[in-house]
Amino acid sequence: MGRNIFYVPPVNLMGIGCLRDLGPILQEKGFMKALIVTDKWLRRNGITDRVIAVLEQHGVPYIVYDGVQPNPTCGNVHEGVKVFQDNGCDVLVSVGGGSPQDAAKAIGIIVTNGGYISEYEGVHKSKRPSVPIVAVNTTAGTSSEVTINYVITDEKRKVKMVMVDKNSLASISVNDPELMVGKPAELTAATGMDALTHAIEALVTPGAYPVTDATALAAVELIFRYLPDAVENGQNIEAREKLVYAVFLGGLAFNNAGLGYVHAMAHQLGGVYDLPHGVCNAMLLPYVQEANAQHVPRKFRPIAQAIGFSVRGRTDEECAEFVVDAIRGLAQEVGIPKRLSELGVTDPDLNLLADNAMKDACAPGNPFQPTKEEVIALFQKIL
């Protein structure tokens, strides 16, 4: 099992109404000016304003950058850096799902380390910690607010760059389900399946260890129980709160155990076609795990048990089959598309997608390393 490092933000606020606890903490830290990093949808729909109200109530000056795209680009990052530096900011407050969170991490790394964001692709490339980041999450979700990972799209190369960097870890995470109430069913489904992917990939990876197993299994159990309720009724605050805990737990798991080929492949679909990350993960998850089960069937027994399968007297292979079927069933229940062709993916691009997936920073975490032909075949199964 070896020695392990467990990364987690120093302060984590979670639960109904916890956003209100943020103001006194920021006031105490005495920041001069915050750059709020968000997107236009959140700004237009009043979510960002709820965070702004907390800052104003506690006398924290701020300026807003709302130019983040759904798959944040190098251009978004460097626009944000300019706003931060031109306005004398000393703290980042990211408001949103994975896109604003990832953009804020990248901005923070550039502010303290300089250079261009593409120079930081890979593992632990920066030398200095980011400026302080307060990560206010609005989806359940990506877990970006609690992880050392971030993903930026290189718009010129049409590649999603994966950065794994301990220096990008947020100082404070905020997971308040009140900010997630009323989110569209499609977004709830996609982000919930993203969280499930985090947990399951963290369980089957060779990097897993008892602490990550415990948090990932708890996340799996909560997601299967509460995601359908949150998708069916966006106002269900109990389901939203349970998913907040699931996202937090799954984030801690993959942040420290690693991911695998679901993410390695999904990143390429996002980079080339600008598709929603959670949807890509949800579509790929059962097929990649079906392949993984041929190599590490024993890893699926505790997952099956967490979902509610009676594992006594069952083989590891039967447990794995149950897990794969359960994932497919959940994806169908929450309305995930079935075919990549519905989303514009075409066969001639599969060669490029497979090449880039094999270079992705998440690929080494898979329980086995597929050949290029096997990666193409996995894409073809859902084309």
Describe the protein's topology.
Blueprint: E1 11-14, H1 22-29, E2 34-37, H2 40-44, H3 47-57, E3 62-65, H4 74-86, E4 91-96, H5 98-113, E5 122-123, E6 133-137, E7 149-154, E8 159-164, E9 172-175, H6 185-204, H7 210-232, H8 237-257, H9 261-273, H10 277-292, H11 300-307, H12 316-333, H13 350-359, H14 372-381
Parallel strand pairs: 1-9, 2-3, 2-4, 4-6, 5-8, 6-9
Antiparallel strand pairs: 7-8
Helix pairs in contact: 4-5, 6-7, 6-8, 6-10, 7-8, 7-11, 9-10, 9-13, 10-12, 11-12, 13-14
Describe the structure.
- Helices cover 50% and strands 11% of the residues.
- Strands 1-9-6-4-2-3 form a six-stranded parallel β-sheet, sandwiched between helices.
- The chain has 383 residues and is an alpha/beta fold.
Quick structural overview:
With 383 residues, the chain is an alpha/beta fold.
Order of helices and strands: EHEHHEHEHEEEEEHHHHHHHHH
Report mean pLDDT, rounded to a whole number.
Answer: 96
- Low-pLDDT parts are none
N-end to C-end Cα span: 38 Å
In total, how many beta strands? 9
Radius of gyration from the CA trace?
20 Å
Strand content: 5-15%
Estimate the global geometry from the Cα principal axes. globular
Major sheet: arrangement of strands? 1-9-6-4-2-3
- Helix percentage range: 40-55%
Count of DSSP-assigned helices: 14
Content-based structural category: alpha/beta
Largest sheet: 6 strands, parallel
